[in-house]
Write a structure and sequence with these properties.
The chain is of the alpha+beta class and about 400 residues long. The protein contains 13 helices and 13 strands. Helix 4 crosses helix 5 (about 115-135), helix 9 (about 210-220) crosses helix 10 (about 220-230) and helix 11 (about 260-280) runs antiparallel to helix 12 (about 310-320). The two termini are about 45 Å apart.
């Protein structure tokens, strides 16, 4: 059982990017928040803030009570995504990146002599140096090396910040016994309760379970078998995932809680979704929209489409549905989703010249926005709405980054 994977986990990523961009923040407690308000929560905390007891998800008012000198910064999704891509490129100069697990986690497959502790150590050291010197000297990462991705990640979590930990085959299962059940990715608080109800409270007990017993706890034979092999260091192949939807939603600011405001913001969401659709090279066959009103009522409608990926066709479909909305009510939130997605290679483009022209037009707009900056070219319906419906911070997955659209 060789050391097959090296796992890179950026430390206090969002806060570290803020400290990298603003040297005055370095060495100080910093929390990243979605909005500047005491009632919101901390999305991330620097290690200086963590030392004061501040955790992800903690209310800002509670964090300020623990650390009155805590510095708050509003999260910048586009910047974190931009730095993420710089990090992926830096790692790629040392070893190929096999999987991007999230905005701050990447897995690299090792081959040949890279699977030796000596060579893997040299690669890990090179990665840390490459990130510090080419992306930012305030950015640190913990690296784990193990026989599969899960155990490499677990190893990386064992020493933070800036650690390097090996989970060698000879370490199993003894090295795992020092961990808690929730130290394994996929075992959250609710799953931990299910293990406890089955009498499993320690990793030592977890390792003794058979495939059948694990399946009973997980409620799935597939999950039971998968976990049995992962815990023993076997490589388990993941089934490729297929994208099902592209969508956006937005709670309307007070000044946009009108029919005109809601229409404009929804149009902006459709612009973003259409751009994402083209970036990932998919076509949509249906669109749905939703409006939630301040009195709690909800209205939604959907329609089928000829397979398309251009902004104009989606806006026209939206406009036709919008005219059927209820005549009364103050909108509070809008949302839209594109479904029936197919990759370009499986799509059936229209035979009509006009449809092909509007698709080409959308791609031309994309090229202009990439070259000259976001929002430089857009349909008039979203004019003046550049800053509405910003992209949310990505945690568990990295969105398709394109500076023309964020």
């Amino acid at each position: 059982m060789p050391l097959r994977y090296l796992f890179v986990d950026m430390n206090a990523y969002f806060a570290s990017v803020e400290q990298q961009d603003d040297p005055k923040l370095r060495g100080k407690p910093v929390a990243v928040v979605p909005v500047m308000a005491r009632t919101t929560c901390c999305l991330a905390a620097s290690y200086e803030a963590k030392a004061k007891g501040i955790k992800t998800g903690m209310p800002v008012w509670e964090a300020l009570a623990l650390c009155p000198d805590l510095i708050l910064r509003v999260g910048r999704h586009d910047r974190y995504t931009e730095v993420h891509h710089g990090i992926v490129k830096a790692i790629g100069r040392c070893v190929p990146v096999d999987r991007v697990m999230s905005i701050d986690e990447m897995a690299c497959k090792l081959i040949g002599d890279e699977r030796t502790i000596a060579k893997a150590t040299a690669i890990a050291t090179q990665i840390k140096h490459e990130i510090r010197t080419t992306v930012g000297d305030s950015l640190r990462c913990s690296i784990g090396v193990g026989p599969n991705v899960m155990l490499a990640k677990v190893a990386g979590d064992m020493k933070k910040p800036d650690g390097l930990t090996f989970m060698s085959p000879e370490d199993l299962p003894l090295k795992l016994y020092q961990l808690k059940l929730t130290d394994f990715p996929g075992i959250g608080r609710q799953m931990e309760k299910r293990f406890h109800r089955s009498g499993i409270t320690e990793v030592r007990q977890l390792m003794r379970l058979t495939v059948k017993q694990l399946a009973a706890v997980w409620g799935s034979k597939i999950h039971g078998e998968r976990w049995y092999h992962l815990l023993r260091g076997d490589e388990v192949w993941e089934k490729p995932t297929t994208r099902r939807t592209v969508g956006h939603s937005h709670v309307l600011p007070p000044e946009y809680r009108t029919d005109v405001g809601a229409y404009g913001v929804m149009s902006r969401l459709i612009h973003k979704a259409a751009a994402r659709l083209r970036t990932i090279d998919y076509w949509a066959g249906a669109i749905s929209i939703m409006v939630r009103y301040e009195d709690g009522r909800r209205w939604e409608l959907g329609c089928k489409l000829p397979q398309c990926q251009d902004t104009l066709s989606l806006l026209q479909a939206f406009g036709a549905m919008w005219r059927r909305r209820p005549p009364t009510g103050k909108p509070h939130q809008v949302a839209m989703v594109l479904t029936d997605l197919v990759p370009t290679k499986a799509a059936t483009p229209s035979l009509f010249e006009f449809d092909r022209q509007v698709t080409d037009l959308s791609h031309a707009m994309d090229r202009v926005n990439r070259q000259f900056g976001k929002h430089k070219v857009h349909f008039g319906v979203v004019h003046g709405l550049d800053e509405t419906a910003p992209v949310r911070i990505a945690f568990s997955q990295i969105p398709e980054f394109d500076p023309a659209y964020v």
